[in-house]
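Morning!

This is the sequence you dropped in the shared folder:
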Amino acid sequence: MELTVNDYKSSVKPIWCPGCGDYAVLNALLRAFAQLQLDPARTVVASGIGCSSRFPAFVKTYGIHGVHGRPLPLATGIKLANPDLTVVAVDKHCVEDASVIAVGGDGDGFSIGGGHFPHAARRNIDLVYIVMDNSIYGMTKGQPSPTSPEELKTKASPYGTQEEPLNPIMMALAYDATFVARTFSGQLKEMIDLFVQALQHPGFAFIQVLSPCVTFYNTYDQYRNSVRPLPAEHDPGNKMAAIQLALETETQYTGLFYRNTARPAYSQVQRQLIEQAGPKTLDDILKAYQP
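The structure's back. Tokens below.
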């Protein structure tokens, strides 16, 4: 029986502020699940702490709401412990796609959890990492985050921030992530399409979602003026071109910056190692350590 969007919704209602961009992200991900007909019993959503990290409660799949900054270690552990969380039906054929999703915000992912990002990318863990970036700490009342623009004034930073903001797309490209994309919560159709592509990608897929906070730093108007689709001629296989586009700060390009399907995913490498090592009995292991 074909699953619908409602089949992926839990009975817990989202409690974000009215107008929060995260509502659109949730809607887009549920629609992507339905489009791919993901099995809810073989799909896991892991999160850290923050407004966006409430995500697992709203989705009718397996989920874990972890501690601050730790969605990637959680998702990595889940994927490596159960690599079979990869089979989904697409066009009535079984294909290998990531059905382990890590979600979080810019503070969760690029501050306290920033050290996990490069290692998940360099290992090419086959999971999807969605960062809902609102450039503010929304849950703790509006402190500047690692992606807040310089000199941003808030009640928590009355004299403006003194720090350069991070560039998440450049970071992902530098860390050699094999799928790097950006989207805007005000563009639902594009967001759904990128989520579908990411879920089908055999490796580490990173998506930065520009997801405004209407309470502490409302950037809707700003993004509607600065967000532009990537140039039609851009080739996602050209990493140097992706880097040049990522360096643009006045224009916030959205779409697929980079994709590399030639590099094997980490679980594939692990399976090859297991096959190479072969089955071992307890006697075999004990003999190997005897003097």
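Headline: Confidence is low (pLDDT under 50) at residues 86-98.

More detail when I'm at my desk.
O.
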